[in-house]
Amino acid sequence: MTILADDQTVVQRILDHIDNKTTDLSESSWREPVDSYRSPERFAAELEMVLRRHPIPFCPSAALPQAGSYVARDAAETPIIAVRGNDGEVRAFRNACRHRGTQLASGSGCEKAFVCPYHGWTYGLDGALRHVPHEHGFLGLDKSTRGLVPVACVERSGVVFVSQDATQVVDAYLGTLPPLIAPEWKLLVAAEREVPTNWKIFVEGFLEGYHIRSTHPQTFYPLQFDNLNVVETFGRNSRVAFPYRAINKLRAVPPAERTVEGKLTYVYHLFPNSMVATFPANIFLVVVEPLAVDRSLLITYVMARDGETRTSDAAATPGRGLNLVNDGGAEDRAVACAIQRGLASGANDFLEFGRFEGAIGHFHRNLHAFLDGMPPRDRR
Ligand code: FES
Ligand SMILES: [Fe+2]
Prior knowledge:
Layout: H1 7-20, E1 30-33, H2 35-38, H3 40-51, E2 56-60, E3 69-75, E4 78-84, E5 90-94, E6 107-110, E7 114-115, E8 122-123, E9 129-131, E10 150-156, E11 159-163, H4 170-174, E12 185-195, H5 199-204, H6 212-215, E13 230-234, E14 237-243, E15 264-270, E16 274-278, E17 283-292, E18 295-305, H7 320-343, E19 350-353, H8 358-371
Antiparallel strand pairs: 1-19, 2-11, 3-4, 3-6, 4-5, 5-10, 7-8, 8-9, 10-11, 12-18, 13-14, 14-15, 15-16, 16-17, 17-18
This protein binds FE2/S2 (inorganic) cluster and fe (ii) ion (FE2).
């Protein structure tokens, strides 16, 4: 298990790369068969073996700020609801009434209890079935056995993780998570967008800086270096540092006093399908939810610090920074869609990820290990 470098070490590695005109290089490159992005069988295996088993980021803690706050959405085709209880704990359940299966909630909100919209069965925030209207109509009903069905859930580093496989001990995967989203970061806005791409293509786009100049000439490139990154892995996850040109100002700061705020973006890839990206005024959590082999739902949570959450309307949010990130994100989405179309061209048997793109190789290496049935604990 690799432990991530501290900020001062990352800064020095970046300054050295600037001086030497170098970037981090992985030991090897990676070739991923095009079939991995197009095969319905492979897609089904990813859902079954990885996305329903592995702990996956479901939402940021900031989306569940108080008792009764909930987020309901599908994860790997399964309706899930995560809710903060009166005891402050976050729990997750399969989002289906134990009477005749109606979904209890959708989207997000805050409730004292979940009342089924169909016949009014009522569940506490802890999932317990509290009330059944006209209960005498159900012979032998034991309410204590008809609570909402839980799924494994833990809250770590400002992120709520769920795993649909009850045999998995979620904690075991998450022991070495670095700090990700501190409590001072509050939810500014959450948005969903469907994109016509395989989910892995969208993940890959976050994990290398080799495309900064070509893809983002007017957005990120004026502020950032092209193909200059520090790439680290921790467990199945990775972290890629994307330095801003302003990092050169840190040369005048004693190494022990250097901080990275406003000097770089960290992108944390949380295996398998989520990224946390840090920006000067915002932190993004992006979950890439697979809908079909060639369609995905991007769920984006944007956090801002206390006092900077003036509006929940993204369009009205002031700040060049957020607009810039949104514009850059649109460029990444366009490329991802173009890759998906290119897969159908028949030109390639595989996609090649070079030594600048090592975090992507790490992602695929771990995905293959999981699909091949490697015992999860052995691959930490
Ligand atoms: S389906 Fe929920 S109360 Fe009937
Ligand atoms: Fe990009």
